[in-house]
Amino acid sequence: MIKMKLILLEFYKNNMCLKSYILIFLIATFSMQGQNANSSASKSIKANFTIASVKAYQESATLKVEDFYNYLSLFSAESTSESLKSEIKSSIYNLFEDENCYVIDYISIEKNPISLKDLLLKIENKNYLFTVSDFESSIVAKDFWTTQYLLTLSQNETPTEIVLYQKIGFKPIIKTFGSSKKEVWTLFLSEVSLP
Amino acid sequence: MNPLDVFFLLKNDVLLTYQKQYPYFEGTWKTFSSQDIQNLIDLIAVQVKQRVSEKWIYTHLKSETKDKLPRKDMLDILSQFVGFSGWDEYYFKAKQNNIGAITKPRNNNAKVVFVAGIILLLLVLFSYQMLKKEEMQTIEVKNAFTEKQINGDEVKAVVIENNIESPVEIIDSKIQIEAKDSTKIVIKSPYYKEKTIIIHKENTIPITLQPIDYAMMLKGFMKSDIKNWQTRKEQLQMILSNDLEVLIMLKNDLGIEYFNKNEFSEKLIVPSVSLKKMKIIDIQCNDKNEIDFIRILQE
To answer: In this complex, do A56 and B258 lie within 8 Å of one another by their Cβ atoms?
Structure first.
C-alpha cells in the first residue's frame, strides 16, 4: 500500500513538472512572437518618420532614380571603355537592394519585365539615352513606397516616352564604416513596372 | 480722471496761457500776485470777451484746495481762454488724451515740432549709417599658396566677444566687420585650416588661409566630369580613410543618409546627378590626414 502511494506521488510530481514545462514553453513562444511584432512595427517608416521627413527622403530617392538612368546612358554609350562599364555596372547594382531585381525591357515593343543584368546586356553599346522627369511618389507602405515617373528613351530617332512605376525601399540596415558598424536607414531602388 | 482733476489741469493751462502773454511770470498760483490777477482779468476780457472777478480768481484759482468744481459758465470762460470751445470740449479732450497742456493753440506748433522731430530723427539715422559705413572694416580672405581670393561660400567667419560667437558677413570674398581697436575673428572652412586672428583698426592686410590638401583634392573631384576616373579612383583610395563616414543632410534638416567609403567613392568616380546637388560643409581628418568624416548638404 505504501509502495503504491509512493508510485502515485512520483507520477503526480512528474505530471506537475510536465505541465510547468509546457507552460514555460508557451509563455516563451508568445513572448518571442510579441517581441517580433513590436520590432517589426518599430522598423516601419511611419513609426519612425514624420510626413515631412518621408517627403525629404522621397525627394532624395528621385536623385537615385536619376543616377540609375544616367548610369544606364553611360553604360549604353559605345564610347565607354570596358573598364568604365564595369565600374558603372557596380554603381548600378549598388543602387539596388537586389541585383537580380526585375525592371522593364525599355527597348522592346512589348515592354516585358527583364532582369537588371539582362537589360544591361541588351543596351550595351547601343547608344541609348535615358532621361527621367515628372516624379510623383505614392503613399508609404511598411518599408517602401512607389514612385511614378516619365522615362524618355532615345536612340538617334524620335524619343519614346513611357510612364513607369518603381518601388523604393527604405529600411534600417547594418552598414559597415571601416572598423565600425552602424544601423542606418537606407534608400534602395527596387523593381520597375508598368502602370 | 474726475472733473476736479481736469479742473486742476485747466488751472495749469490758464497759467501757461498767461505766461505766453507775460513771459517774465515764472511762478505758480501760489505766487500769483494781485497785479497778475488784474492782468489775467484784463487778458480774459480781451480774448474771451468775458468778465471774471478778482474774488472768483482768489477763491477758485489761487486756492490750492479743490473740493468743489466751479460753475460751468466760469469753466467755459477759462476753457475758451486756453483755446477750447468750452469746458465740455476741454474736459472731453483731457479725458481722452490725459493731457495737461494746452493743445489747440499749440496745434500748429505741435505739427512743426513733430515734422522737425521726424527730420531730426532721419538725419540722426542717416548720420549714424554714414558713420557706421565709415567705421566698417573690409578684409580680404586669400589662399596662402595661390594668393587668390577664397570664394565666400567656402568660408565662415565669427567674431568672438566675451566668449560669444557672432557670424560675420562675407561679401565678395571680403570680411566686413565693425572697426574696433581689436577684434578677435575665427575663420572656418571645410577646405582650409581654421584660423583665429586679432584684427586691429588700421589693419588692411589680407587674411591668408592654409588649404587642407586632401580636402582641396576632394573639392576638385566633386566638380570633375568622367575624364580621368581611374586616377580619381586611386586618389580617392588614398585620401579617404577606410573608416570614412559621410552624412548627407537632406533639405531643411529633415533627414540624413549615410554613405561609407565605397558608396561615396562610387559617386565621385562616375559623376552622378546627385553629386551635382551636394555641397560639402564640413570635413574632418584623422591623424594620417586622411578624410574620415564629411558632412554634406543636399540642395
So the answer is: no
Looking at the DSSP assignment, which residues form a beta bridge with residue A164? A149
CB A70 within 8 A of CB B226: no
CA distances from B251 to A45, B254, B293, B296 (A): 18, 6, 20, 11
SS3 for A39? Answer: helix
Total structural domains in chain B?
A: 4
Span A87-106, pLDDT tens digits: 999 999 999 999 899 999 99
ipTM: 0.77
For chain A, list the domains and their CATH numbers. Answer: 49-193 (3.10.450.50)
Give chain A's contact residues with B (Cβ, < 8 Å). Answer: 49-50, 52-53, 55-57, 59-60, 63-64, 66-67, 70-71, 74, 83-84, 87-88, 90-91, 94, 175-180, 182, 184-187
Q: A73 pLDDT exceeds 90?
A: yes
Distance to chain A for B216, nearest Cα, Å: 23
- pTM value is 0.64
Tell me, yes or no, whether B254 and B239 share the same domain: yes
* CATH classification of the domain holding B188: 2.60.40
The domain boundary, picked from B186, B209, B232, lies at B209
